[in-house]
Amino acid sequence: MATNGEDVHALNGVLSSQPSNNHTTEEALNKHKVSSATENGTGPAQRFTFTGQPTLEDIRRMQAEFTDERDWNQFHQPRNLLLAMVGEVGEVSELFQWRGEVAEGLPGWTDSEREQLAHELSDVMIYLVELAEKCHVDLPQAVLRKMALNRLKYPASKVQGSAKKYTEYKD
Amino acid sequence: MATNGEDVHALNGVLSSQPSNNHTTEEALNKHKVSSATENGTGPAQRFTFTGQPTLEDIRRMQAEFTDERDWNQFHQPRNLLLAMVGEVGEVSELFQWRGEVAEGLPGWTDSEREQLAHELSDVMIYLVELAEKCHVDLPQAVLRKMALNRLKYPASKVQGSAKKYTEYKD
Amino acid sequence: MATNGEDVHALNGVLSSQPSNNHTTEEALNKHKVSSATENGTGPAQRFTFTGQPTLEDIRRMQAEFTDERDWNQFHQPRNLLLAMVGEVGEVSELFQWRGEVAEGLPGWTDSEREQLAHELSDVMIYLVELAEKCHVDLPQAVLRKMALNRLKYPASKVQGSAKKYTEYKD
Amino acid sequence: MATNGEDVHALNGVLSSQPSNNHTTEEALNKHKVSSATENGTGPAQRFTFTGQPTLEDIRRMQAEFTDERDWNQFHQPRNLLLAMVGEVGEVSELFQWRGEVAEGLPGWTDSEREQLAHELSDVMIYLVELAEKCHVDLPQAVLRKMALNRLKYPASKVQGSAKKYTEYKD
After folding, report:
1. What is the distance in angstroms between the Cα of B56 and the nearest Cα belonging to chain D?
2. pTM for this structure?
3. C99: which chain A residues are within 8 Å (Cβ-Cβ)?
4. Half-sphere exposure of A124 toward its Cβ, with a 13 Å CA cutoff?
């Protein structure tokens, strides 16, 4: 689902009608500015954070409504959604493919490239959420279980800071 | 990050110490049973839903702590995380590759296969969230913008229920 | 590298200058017709085959010349080529994503859709070959070794015809 | 299809029975040594090349025999093969995921890592070839057409050596 950056300007009215969204586009924009300021060294390094909403369940419900309204559940079987997700991962890859190493915060990327990336990452997320729903996987809880497993599998005391250890543990 | 289904039994203590998790493993399990009951036709078709937590910001923060504690930020540049996500999408694909069509709810899949899928979908989610963080993309808000764009791009009145129209609109 | 089906008509002169190609476009076209006839049941089922050329080394050499002439080796490091290949696999997936099960020979696909698929599969092949070259992997010989390993790993007498055995062996 | 590097030693007898392979394992090995010598600066930079065989049609035929002997055509529908290919691309990605930039020739990689990569690239190739066969795409000829299109689309005189132009042309 490649989208045109210019279409974003058409979203004002639509976004304001989102029932579960307490954050305006302007707030999100300000947030982004703060993080840019931090990058420029004007303050102590501050971790980039997400806004609290929508939750995964919000996204699931909104996408379910979107699919229902278009009578598209007939096309949204698990393997179709999986292939759609693979397609979107491919679109993310295309944005990174000729750049060599890319640093945190994407220095040198234009606003248009950042927005394009935001769209493609969102498409991966949307299909991932719908795939989990159609597979009856409670994704938020599954992530919690997997992260607990990861903490057991890679004890901080054993794997800390060594690329060699890290690779061995990963393999 | 393939994990062994048997390791799940080691998680009780770990899970109970999750600060932002209000749902116990047992609750999640019961929820899963309810959805199975619905599949078996013992009640009206009820849409599968996710639990409300963790949120995407919860997942981001927990994964950031995990990475910090292991001094692994040096390995988690955007392109490394992207390739890791591609690897996990590959693992999801391996679970679906020889099955032909798979219906909603994964009828006929064993509990072990379902848990394996839950793990792999979670790995995709974890790397997607960390990739977005390292790219300074506010993923929850980006999804909201993208879904609004999708509603504009595919008006329900025009694309409803026709595979032909659907394909044309998608292409 | 999505390409427009209409551009194919501009290729006559270009194709005829291919040094290592002993097969004309017309021959390839006739071959395709034969296979279509077989599909339509006008003869005994005949296995679809490839023409003998270009070989993998031909493709490697032609793509190396293409890259050299454009001074693009500076962009064609291994990880860049890998991400480009992921992008092309994504484009193949998009052609299959909303179709449900697809049978051998792609019944019902239009000529334009088949040509599009031929283009995207070719893009995967081109990047796979260049990735192997830049990694100094002799791909034809590596395939030979891997196929020999597969014959050892999956003995025909043990895995024959059983989906269950097949899955167990694969896992 | 991850395989163990140690199994390679079991291949001698099997490889010598390959009907269409005129190159011995030893020749391939010597070839590899030559390229390593070049990397070490003991001679003028010499482009890495592939051996001439097996051709794509050889690979197609050998894989068709492999599939026939195991009665596995029932599992090798186009979408199954596509998902299998995605899985193998994921395995290639896992070999590159935590390394940061990787230079041509993979300096610093162990022999075991190189062999693992050779296996995974081969798996992508094998599934790509079988996918093309089952889709009735004459892959060698399709690649020839696509490369001719690429030469038309990216004229050497216009796109030479500029990352900016390159990106614009690619997009």
Report:
1. 23
2. 0.79
3. 80
4. 28
